[in-house]
Amino acid sequence: MGLFDLFKKTDKIGKDSTIDSTEIIEDVENGDTSAKVVTKLSYHPDWNVPQEQKYIFNFLANELEPLKPNQLSLAAIDIDENTSTGAWDVKAFFRNSLPKAIDLGEMGLFLLDKDGKVIASKTFDFKELGSIPAESARPWVFTFEKNTIQASELPEEGWKIAFNLISLRGHQLDLEESWKTQLTEEQIAQLENIVKDLPKLGKTEVNFTGFQLKVLEDEGMAVSIFVRNGNEKSINIEQLPLEILDANQKQVAKGFFKLDPSINVQPNSSKPWTFVFPKEMVNTEGADLSKWTPRLVQ
Questions:
Q1: Is the sign of the CA dihedral 179, 180, 186, 190 positive or negative?
Q2: In the chain, fewer beta carbons within 10 Å around the N or the C end?
Q3: What is the CATH number of the domain that holds 262?
Q4: Which among 20, 21, 168 has a CA at the least distance from the CA of 108?
Q5: Looking at the structure, do residues 103 and 185 belong to the same domain, yes or no?
């Protein structure tokens, strides 16, 4: 099946998803938010569009609602399922209401059902769409392979394709209110810089990274770690079996922590937390604490 074979219908059954371009693009000038921008149809420069196909594209494009200035939008049309692979071909217009052309890179997209539930998720390389002219709408097919789909059947009318803003904003520091009140702006900035420089997480990875260790006067140990969440959903940790290894991989502390309330870590974020091991859980004799590692006890 060729590209244009997917665009044979003039019915639009999906909904539009729109964001302010500042979520993705820097140096955007503020426009008149009361103004309306009617986007013009734009084809990829490599496309040779047959005349009958232009009619369908024009019909669909003319049905789109105007945008406000400086917006980016995904106007969903419909979905075809590839019966041989199980992939979903999602047809949509990518729309740009900025007064300038834009070139984008990799971005995550969600496919949402009529109730807003995520039914598919994938990162796409928007370089393939080419440069998107000012105030334009470009038709495109976003293919979600079977392993990116979390539903057993095509969604009902009212679904939409949307930008995954969690992935776009980058990995961030997630601070509890108690930490915000106790730390200075400089200390918060230091934590943000540490999080920024940590290795990138996998999309479903949860990681524990230490950043401060203190042996207490009573011979207990206070360990501060980042609970790192690479998922696109928040996670709750209610209990944590944790050990601390020194530079020689010698166990210097071990404990089981029941957390009440639980630790909630926002999507694509790292939350600092301090765990205090009492004296009876600590053995620092002969330990080399110049380097240490937190690890879950299996």
A1: positive
A2: C
A3: 2.60.40
A4: 168
A5: no
140 and 178 belong to one structural domain: no
Q: Is the dihedral of CA 54, 55, 58, 63 positive or negative?
A: negative
The reply to whether 11 and 150 lie within a common domain is yes
Q: Which of 116, 135, 168 is the last residue of a domain?
A: 168
On the 0-12 / 13-18 / 19+ scale of CB atoms within 10 A, 295 is middle
**DSSP strand E in the chain: where?**
16-20, 40-41, 71-81, 88-96, 106-112, 118-125, 136-144, 160-163, 172-173, 206-215, 221-229, 235-245, 251-265, 269-277, 293-296
Q: In which domain, by residue range, is 96 found?
A: 4-168
What is the block-wise mean pLDDT of the chain (298 residues), using blocks of 10 residues? 62 84 73 82 92 90 92 93 93 94 90 92 92 95 94 90 80 91 93 91 90 94 95 89 96 94 90 96 94 93
Strand partners, 253: 244, 282
Nearest CA to 292 among 252, 254, 257, 256? 252
Same domain, 127 and 264: no
Of 168, 191, 221, the position where a domain reaches its end is 168
Same structural domain for residues 269 and 287? yes
Question: Contact 139/93 with Cβ under 8 angstroms?
Answer: yes
Q: Is the pTM of this model over 0.90?
A: no
